[in-house]
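Handout, section B. The chain below has 78 residues.
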Amino acid sequence: MAEASKKENFFVRVGSKTKRFFRELRSELKKVVWPTKQQMINNTIIVLFCVLLVGIFIWAFDAVAGLVVNGIISLVKG
């Protein structure tokens, strides 16, 4: 019985863990080095360019693969 009374309430444990989580979260966010506006613009342009480049590559590969598959199908059909 004495051990059961020493154990904290479930809600007290969850509340204290939640408070500790947000306290640690706040201290970690203070350590973050946020990018400048110019860095964000440069990074955004680079990402958009890479997405466009990969999209063009996939489109070209799909077009060539489609031509190859259609060529094979037309050869088989005769």
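Note. The chain has three helices and no strands. Compare this with the example in section A.
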